[in-house]
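Key result, reporting period 2: structure in, sequence out.
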């Protein structure tokens, strides 16, 4: 039996893909419960979103920029197991904060950092799909950052069901609030193309740079498996 376009239920909100369980907090809580258990039992830090190559690509880019200092404040949005911040700490960066809406992910990240004897990273539970207001009582959301990094969190928001549009708009506003006026936002996505991301974030951000990612060729067309962009507040 073949499915029609209507049967697939592609949402009419700018997405050309359907929602998924990866857009739910329950999915990530359960995933990190398993990873925390595995870490305690066998020392496995768990999955690195988009793989180590993608993570290393961002770290190398940050480390090579002449206008980025090791003392610049960095926020890792959706830090997961926190390994990216650990690697940044090894490169000499000293003002590091990781947030995730899953308390289990934050516990895993803290455990891994402690085992590596890295005490310079601050981890906090925070949901970037909830508005940041003057009443927000969260240390991680009460400061400004020179660099915000997202490696898959906006993708997870993009996979939400009916809450996607509102969560997307809140997320964009929150990132803008957390960045210094001259700061940069590094976003990596496998769901969205460069053009789509620039359109989605156009209300609050402008394009600054591409971070080159692996390409593939299909039907004479060249594309990217992953999109990685550097944006600045507008």
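The corresponding designed sequence is given below.
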């Amino acid at each position: 039996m073949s499915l029609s376009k209507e049967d697939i239920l592609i949402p009419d909100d700018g997405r050309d893909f359907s929602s998924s369980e990866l857009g739910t907090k329950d999915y990530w809580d359960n995933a990190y419960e398993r990873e925390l258990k595995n870490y305690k039992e066998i020392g496995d830090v768990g999955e690195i979103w988009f793989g180590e190559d993608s993570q290393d690509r961002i770290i190398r880019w940050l480390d090579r920029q002449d206008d980025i200092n090791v003392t610049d404040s960095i926020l890792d949005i959706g830090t997961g197991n926190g390994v990216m911040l650990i690697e940044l700490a090894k490169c000499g960066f000293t003002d590091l904060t990781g947030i995730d809406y899953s308390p289990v992910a934050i516990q895993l990240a803290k455990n891994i950092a402690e085992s590596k004897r890295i005490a310079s990273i601050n981890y906090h539970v925070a949901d970037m799909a909830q508005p940041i207001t003057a009443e927000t009582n969260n240390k991680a959301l009460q400061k400004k950052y020179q660099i915000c990094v997202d490696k898959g969190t906006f993708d997870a928001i993009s996979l939400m069901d009916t809450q996607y549009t509102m969560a997307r708009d809140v997320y964009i506003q929150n990132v803008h609030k957390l960045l210094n006026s001259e700061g940069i936002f590094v976003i990596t996505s496998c769901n969205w193309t460069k053009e789509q991301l620039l359109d989605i974030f156009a209300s609050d951000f402008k394009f600054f740079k591409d971070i080159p990612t692996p390409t593939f060729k299909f039907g004479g067309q060249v594309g990217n498996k992953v999109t990685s962009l550097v944006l600045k507040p507008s």
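Strands lie at 73-77, 95-100, 121-125, 145-151, 179-189, 205-210, 215-218, 221-224, 227-233. The radius of gyration is 18 Å. This case is discussed further under Risks and Mitigation.
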